[in-house]
Design brief:
single chain; Ub_conjugating_enzyme; Ubiquitin Conjugating Enzyme; 4-stranded antiparallel beta sheet; ubiquitin conjugating enzyme activity; alpha+beta
Length: 202
């Protein structure tokens, strides 16, 4: 935390707290008070898509002049998707590039990435094969995407500490042993308590 400007840290904490207070359906943001420039979140694959019920871990790297400059987004979970680089996991989405606006924030970014799983954009493909199949052979595209989901985002390949599905009214919090806890009001208070204590140190 010493290398992060207090103004930046307080701004990011405020956004994280807002997300914890008003959860995003199918999305869970992890709080890493040790490094606010490196955030992780989990996304449950939306229904009626080739990614359904898969657990996808993403990484957001925030520049220290955020929100003036947008974060960089990466899928840590392997995924067959036109807008995800198959080698690096980099996410190509207009929200993080030409359409970025400092007022958008983390909530909008997470929602946009989840929406990308529902509506891919073959015109800005980082995975050329996935982009081509999406346009020319949708059945084969969905088949390959489901295979990737099954192998990398379901079962043992997925992060075992986070369940592959959870109710709409829950989010991923960790207990002292690193196991997931259901998001109760008590757990929220514990998380926000950590947030407040960290902010006092800034």
């Amino acid at each position: 935390m010493e290398n992060v400007f207090p103004k930046f840290a307080k701004s990011v904490f405020k956004e994280i707290r807002a997300i914890l207070d008003d959860e995003i359906d199918g999305v869970s943001l992890e709080l890493n008070e040790q490094d606010l420039t490196d955030l992780k979140a989990s996304i449950i694959g939306p229904r009626d898509t080739p990614f359904e019920n898969g657990l996808f871990i993403i990484r957001l790297i925030l520049p220290t002049n955020y929100p003036t400059e947008p974060p960089k987004g990466f899928f840590l979970t392997k995924i067959f998707h036109p807008n995800v680089n198959p080698r690096t996991g980099e996410i190509c989405i207009d929200t993080l590039k030409k359409e970025w606006n400092p007022v958008l924030g983390l909530r909008h970014i997470l929602l946009s990435i989840r929406c990308l799983l529902i509506v891919p954009n073959p015109e800005s493909a980082l995975n050329e094969e996935a982009g081509r199949l999406l346009l020319e052979d949708y059945d084969e595209y969905t088949r390959q995407a489901r295979i990737f989901t099954s192998v990398h985002a379901l079962g043992p390949a997925a992060t075992p500490k986070i369940p592959t599905s959870y109710p709409q009214d829950s989010t991923i919090l960790r207990d002292s042993n690193g196991h997931p806890e259901k998001s109760t009001s008590l757990n929220k208070k514990k998380t926000l308590s950590v947030t407040k204590k960290t902010m006092k140190r800034l």
